[in-house]
Specification:
The chain is of the alpha/beta class. It folds into 2 domains: 91 residues, Tetrapyrrole methylase, N-terminal domain (Cobalt-precorrin-4 Transmethylase, domain 1, 3-Layer(aba) Sandwich); 115 residues, Methyltransferase, Cobalt-precorrin-4 Transmethylase, Domain 2, CATH 3.30.950.10. The protein contains 9 helices and 8 strands. The strands form 2 sheets. It has a 5-stranded mixed β-sheet with strand order 4-5-8-6-7. Helix 3 packs parallel to helix 4. The longest helix is centred in the C-terminal third of the chain and has 20 residues. It starts with 8 loop residues before the first helix and ends with a helix. The mean pLDDT is 95.
């Protein structure tokens, strides 16, 4: 995620040893840095265009990558963060390459999720953590657990069914608020988060009330974190069952 620091030695080696490097990076400065590591870096950003379906863009990216693979070249695709997190093209490229008999694999990277846990001081094992793409939460009937953290991705374009926009307005975020209000009070505090991509930057950590989310500035790179709104509820029936198992197990050990 952060220029220069969040890259493993093995990932760097793959970049340096490739014949062709495709760059799916949203930051021009990071792309310039990548150009210092390899002489043939081809940006995938020009495939994006306002009003054009992102799925069409992703397919064109895959075609560009696979064309060089089929030409017998050693190809490396570089994507910001973890290349498998909210990234259709890397997964599809590997899937097609393998189906055609080419060796292909993905190197894991540090994602925005990893940075989020560190910057916000969240341990996902404490209360549990659920992740949803924001639009998917609207399009389908999903079950939210308000006793756990809720992480919402791509809130900046929530509700977009065209796959051709890069943002949606307050009315769309209001629909998200209405859905979340089924489980959270409108005065519940949310966190708008964006990890730093340059060493000189600080992460964005802005706290807003749920009811104020439609008016808040939320862009594609921002993630919305909803802290737990209710305490964990003990399951007395299951606890009693486990206690009985403990007694039975201890008894069997004593007999043995």
């Amino acid at each position: 995620m952060t220029l220069g620091s969040h890259i493993s030695p093995l990932a760097r080696s793959h970049i340096e040893q490739a014949d062709v490097v495709f760059a799916g990076l949203s930051d021009g400065i990071v792309e310039l840095w990548l150009n210092k590591m390899h002489t043939d870096v081809r940006s995938l950003q020009p495939y994006y265009r306002e009003g054009k379906s992102r799925m069409q863009t992703y397919r064109q990216m895959v075609d560009a990558i696979l064309t060089e693979v089929r030409a017998g070249k050693r190809v490396c695709g570089v994507f910001y963060g973890h290349p498998g997190v909210f990234a259709w093209a890397p997964h599809k490229s590997i899937e097609i390459a393998r189906s055609e008999g080419y060796p292909a694999h993905m190197e894991p990277g540090i994602s925005a999720e990893d940075c989020l846990y560190a910057d916000l001081g969240i341990d996902p094992g404490r209360f549990g953590c659920q992740h949803f793409e924001a639009s998917q939460l609207l399009f389908y009937q999903r079950r939210i657990d308000p006793t756990a953290y809720l992480v919402l991705w791509q809130v900046g374009l929530v509700g977009d069914q065209s796959l051709a926009r890069f943002s949606t307005g307050p009315a769309y975020k209001q629909v998200l608020v209405d859905v979340l209000a089924r489980d959270y009070p409108l005065d519940h505090e949310l966190i708008i988060y964006r990890s730093a991509t340059l060493p000189i930057q600080q992460p964005r950590i802005e706290r807003v009330r749920l009811g104020d989310l439609p008016q808040a500035k939320v862009e594609m790179a921002d993630t919305v974190v909803v802290p737990p709104a209710r305490p964990l509820q003990p399951d007395t029936e299951i606890r009693a069952r486990l206690a009985a198992l403990d007694i039975a197990t201890a008894g069997e050990a004593g007999v043995a």
